Amino acid sequence: MSVTSQPSDSAQDSAKQSASPAHSEFLQLNTLTEHPPFDSENETPTEQQDGYTPSRSVTPSPFQDHVDVQPNEPTPTIPPECPICGKKFTRAQERDRHLESYLPHSIHCPFQDCPWTGRRRWDLKTHWEKKHPKTGQILGREKNKIYDPKEFVKSIVDGTSHLEVARSALLKVRERLIELGKVDVGANVLGRKLDIEN
């Protein structure tokens, strides 16, 4: 007795007749139809044949723009450096903190007659505990800030002259200290003349 892998045509016909309607519908959908061959190798099917459209036939690739990169080679890192003095740093945060040293102090002591100014909240807290321990006042967060040095540091990093940026920051310091009543219009602050409009 021989076993054949392909059923005969008569066996398929009898299976189609005895099967349920759903099964026969599946067999009809599963049957491939033969298409006429193309005239030449370069010819492609038209939209009328099988609903073929070139845009639907090509799967889009997420790698459209190929960049020739050697994955095993380490990427050289350029250490951030100060655009003013050229000092190199391991992190951009260290460089930005260094750039703040070219700007006027950004924090002042809220005590009315105290001329102290600085750059760090920790320095203000230390100053407050040493110089004004018995005042009973609690330090606020934003009341002590004269200006935000980050925007000025970003300007220096972006290429603006540090002298121009320092001048803008000094004008902000002047406006804020006059507003607080801590300094007169023509006074010097931090060894710099505040009257810099001339």
Brief digest:
The protein is mainly alpha-helical and 198 residues long.
Note down, in words, how this protein is organized.
- Residues 43-62 have a biased composition (Polar residues).
- InterPro entries: Znf_C2H2_type.
- Keywords: Metal-binding, Zinc, Zinc-finger.
- This protein has a domain at 92-193.
- It has 198 residues and is mainly α.
- Helix 4 crosses helix 6 (149-157) and helix 6 (149-157) runs antiparallel to helix 7.
- The protein has helices at 9-18, 21-30, 54-57, 92-100, 121-131, 149-157, 162-180, and strands spanning 107-108, 117-118, 188-189, 192-193.
- The N and C termini lie far apart (114 Å).
- The protein contains seven helices and four strands, in the order ααααββαααββ.
- It has a two-stranded antiparallel sheet.
- Strand 1 and strand 2 form a beta hairpin.
- It is elongated and about 100 Å long.
